[in-house]
Amino acid sequence: MPTATISPLGFPEAVLPESARQLRLDVRDFLDEERARGTVLGRPDSWLAGWDPAFTRRLAERGWVGMALPTEYGGAGRGFLERYVVIEELLAAGAPVSAHWVSDRQAGPSILQHGTEEQRRFFLPRIAAGKCFFSIGMSEKSSGSDLASVRTCAERTADGWRLTGTKMWTGGAHANDYAIVLARTEEAEDKHAGLSQFIVDLRAPGVRIEPIHLMSGEHRFNAFHLEGVHVPEAMLLGQQGDGWKQVTGELAFERSGPERYLSTFPLLVSLLRELDQRAMTAEQLTQVGILTARLHSIRQLSLGVAAALDAGASLDTQAALVKDLGTRLEGALVDSVRSILPTPADPHATPGSHAELLAFALLHSPGYTLRGGTNEILRGIITRGLEQH
Amino acid sequence: MNTHTIDTSTPAIPADDYDTTAFFADPGAIATVTNTTDSQTVPLPTPDASTAELLAAVHEAGRRTVPAPFAETALVARPLLRRAGLSVPEGPLTYAIAPQLTVRHAHPAASAVGSAGSAGEDDTLLVAGTLRRVPWARTATAVVVLANAPFGPVLFTLTPDQAVLAPGANLAEEARDDLHLASVEIPAAQVRRIPRELLEEAELRAALARAALIAGAGQRCVELTVAHTTARTQFGRPLSRFQAVKQEEAKLIEEAALVRAAVQAAAAPLDAGTAAARFAIAGAKTQASASAAEIARIAHQLHGAIGITKLHPLHLATTRLWSWRDEDGDETTWAAGLARTLTADTLWAALTSTP
Ligand SMILES: Cc1cc2nc3c(=O)[nH]c(=O)nc-3n(C[C@H](O)[C@H](O)[C@H](O)COP(=O)(O)OP(=O)(O)OC[C@H]3O[C@@H](n4cnc5c(N)ncnc54)[C@H](O)[C@@H]3O)c2cc1C
């Protein structure tokens, strides 16, 4: 029997620490206060679209930004499972978290792991205070799924590096402070070799940000031109030539979190609010139950990966699996909500009304299965992971 | 053999000859179509095993398509007997949740209060009616029955010889027998009055047992499919090297993992009590039943024609998936039950009630 092939499918059982229970209640209290202020609007996809630096700073005051970073660098020194509880509460509520999203999820952990002591001391406390925001500069016009084909190049100068090239789809570059840029430092036979990561100041001379509007009209991402940008030696992130290893090492964090199945959860809550006004039909009950069971099941898988990360293990295959399942559900949820309570999606309806939230979720829906690596590519990772065992 | 192993002398699954070397000219291409029916016995955990251990064993029984009431014994009948304070008989057990049975006192009191037979001198019962599609009834030592007596819910045991048995089976040819009871007397020693929660717990246990079996059969589908797509060559390459195959195979793997996670997540809530278990188990059975179609569809598609034959063991898993998804409540029933209590204000709280 090929029993051994199953190991990449092993998911640790997640048991949340006792402290998580109180933490969850604290976050709910905080969210109630913020709702009263009018900052938490229950919108879908709030980790892409909910831009509110003041909200981020209030969250940071509670110790809930960069909370898994060590205390010596200004973090709260709490584990990934506690961080998980906080971010799932924020996403479920549709809180505006996009300002700090990338610094909290990726830049912080990456600088902690690969950065110099100087970089850690400079960036991490600022990230944890909600005062320093990052973008990800990976994709390019011809480098999407085939990320290793990036052409942005970094040439050595007397005191650092000179970066030239154009990054695409750079979320938040028009508003953030820094970007972590993947660039080629050496031409190599193996396209995975010779790549390096740099921390680029988005206000440095030679940086030109050009908006790319979403089909909804929103300005969320950009073309990010690096026109001979000077990057000081001290802003190389990690080892020269290790860029590919560093980038792929972060993926388990990026792919398995609750943002991969909760983007459209607020729409389901909105649907129930509509249905609370009337008696649900048998068909509506069934469809709501089917969605809920799937959310519940995917959440268990996602928590399993968080538990492994908390224990120091990395489960890339499992993370890819969670992301494919979760992001497909995000899109399917929009369609189900439409059929459970037929409502014409209307972007001009009263903000926060069901018709408006539906329009918002729908216009964003094609992105769920693209960002962070497309689902087709993830499925290749999943089958490969299984066959290698 | 381990004394806790359930074995049946009449396996319901015909002993197929899976060795199909003669079937194809190229033996390499059918490397996986050999006898993969590893032993169909799985050691039955001792009655005091934890719910998590029981679930793991039932999952394994589902994976190996054990032809016996393994899940019924381990996860439903035994715990219910214990909870009701009755001794646990040796051997394979099964259960029937039967609110439609007619249950009367066998010994009406001389001075009955209320309608005739509504009070008795002891709890000896007269039972009439039909228990439908009882799993493995023909091979079970005893049937645990949950029914409504005039004085409230009861649990009692009967032996299959007390009934007229009409054999039946599900799509996988697993025994599902009707038991006709014509005023059968159940002695008071075999009867226990039970709280209403135990009736609900019985339904939850049955659903969870079925979900765990589905998870096991789902895993079997994954194993067989991965083995097949890596061994079978077409156009000069293994099937698993084709993008289109990878896309489908990954979805199969995901769906199986999803069911397994949902089942695993129900163990702790079941130990904590009925109220905590309701959401997790309704979620697990809904997901398991809803995923069965996709798991079976992809596994068959990727196996090609060989998979739909009796020569290949895939059908052992897929016919069970199609049967088990409907038994002990299909996804429509459980999903509706799951959603009935949810409102905009309680949905998120319910989802975060586990772990
Ligand atoms: C909302 C959003 C935010 C984003 N934010 C950022 C950001 O902040 N920073 C950043 O760097 N990038 C960002 N991206 C870019 C994202 O990472 C890329 O869109 C993604 O990697 C896919 O690349 P592509 O769009 O070039 O598609 P392509 O790679 O051209 O793929 C097109 C289609 O072909 C399929 N395909 C390609 N190759 C294969 C193959 N070998 N096998 C099977 N199918 C294949 C793909 O799956 C896809 O369906 C963002 C994208 C979105 C949608």
Automatic annotation (TrEMBL), chain A:
Domain of life: Bacteria
Keyword Oxidoreductase attributed: yes
Keywords assigned: Oxidoreductase
Listed PANTHER family: ACYL-COA DEHYDROGENASE (PTHR43292), ACYL-COA DEHYDROGENASE FADE34 (PTHR43292:SF4)
Protein's name according to its UniProt entry: Acyl-CoA dehydrogenase family protein
A UniProt-annotated Pfam family: Acyl-CoA_dh_M
SUPFAM superfamilies: Acyl-CoA dehydrogenase NM domain-like
Domain Acyl-CoA dehydrogenase/oxidase N-terminal, first and last residues per copy: 18-131
Acyl-CoA oxidase/dehydrogenase middle domain: residues covered: 136-219
InterPro entries per UniProt: Acyl-CoA_DH_CS (IPR006089), Acyl-CoA_Oxase/DH_mid-dom (IPR006091), Acyl-CoA_Oxase/DH_mid-dom_sf (IPR046373), AcylCoA_DH/ox_N (IPR013786), AcylCoA_DH/ox_N_sf (IPR037069), AcylCoA_DH/oxidase_NM_dom_sf (IPR009100), Mycobact_Acyl-CoA_DH (IPR052161)
TrEMBL record, chain B:
Keywords: FAD, Flavoprotein, Oxidoreductase
The keyword Magnesium belongs to this UniProt entry's keyword annotation: no
Entry annotated with the keyword Secreted: no
Name of the protein described by the UniProt record: Acyl-CoA dehydrogenase family protein
Entry superkingdom: Bacteria
Pfam family, one: Acyl-CoA_dh_1
Organism: Kitasatospora cathayae
Domain Acyl-CoA dehydrogenase/oxidase C-terminal residue range list: 208-316
